[in-house]
Amino acid sequence: xxxxxxxxxxxxxxxYSMYFALVIIMIVFSxxxxxxxxxxxxxxxxxxxxxxxxxxxxxxVLVIIAGHTDLSLGSLTGLLGGIMAVLQVKFGWSTPMVxxxxxxxxxxxxxxxxxxxxxxxxxxxxxxxxxxLSYRGVLIMLTGGETIAPMRDSFKMIxxxxxxxxxxxxxxxxxxxxxxxLAVAVFIGFQIHNRRLRIKHGFPVGKxxxxxxxxxxxxAAILGAFLMIALYRGxxxxxxLLIFLTLILHYVSTRTPFGRYVFAIGGNVEAARLSGxxxxxxxxxxxxxxGSLAAVSGMLFTARLNSATASAGTMFEFDAITAAIIxxxxxxxxxxxxxxxxxxxxxxxxxNNGMGLMxxxxxxxxxxxxxxxxxxxxxxxxxxxxxx
Length: 388
Description:
This protein is mainly α. It folds into 2 domains: about 290 residues, ABC transporter involved in vitamin B12 uptake, BtuC, CATH 1.10.3470; about 70 residues, no CATH class. About 75% of the residues lie in helices and about 0% in strands. It has 15 helices and no strands. The radius of gyration is 21 Å and the shape is globular. The N terminus is likely disordered.
């Protein structure tokens, strides 16, 4: 019995550690910055700063689950953002055409990675490392070392704009609060539906009072977050896009055969092959998906800065991979979640934002983030050994 209880405790710690970490980080930075960190304005800025990293994280987490990696994320994001900037600034393309071109080019680069990894069986580390170096060089050539600006207003709005409000007389952003109430309603309905399914199929569930208390606390947290955002200028378009993509990839990873194949490959590639899974097709598709998400991330980053530079996307791969691992993805493959990757992105974004507010020098920030990544991986490996 003690071993079962300790195993359950370890499972809970691993499952919810990212949430605990996020809460602790926010409390610490709120105290050390004199309350500035948790102001509506700064939380909105945090959403802007996190969105493009989170978009990469929800893709790379699937790559990591499958047992691979992608070191080209930062350079590819910068390159695709630079391409979209050049197309509109120098060639006068419309915003829809620029976005379409960026996504298609991103998918092409992803297919290039997928070809070498899935069909030529070259390790993902080598293929994407080559991409990281090559894409940065192409970006420097593309921009000529200069800043490409400004973007079209419609394009810039994607990275800087907010959802419009209905009434100008209310002391809060009403549209955001409506979305918050809808989000809580969907969350409660989803949790109740999942509980009923588990009961129907004979899976164990917690007691009703504990279930209700958990839903109540989570709903209050969701509504509180929306309220904080509503007290400033409302929810940004970039956050809405992130939520939309997160919901899609969460569904794909948990409710479709493709998602099950990804987990199966990461858990035991030989068993997956013997069960008839087309491993090459799945791996190829993962990198095509990753290329399209790099385009979306590049769009958000370029639109937010209203410019493209040769240094755009530097170290984005580190933040995205760290976010995925903090969010529960195992470096050994077979474990992770899209929702966890978003929470992990919020953790890394909070660290960057909080250390910036505290005026911690950049060199020390890099040291701190490197140590955090090392500790998270050490924790993950330790938990795996204990389970065995």
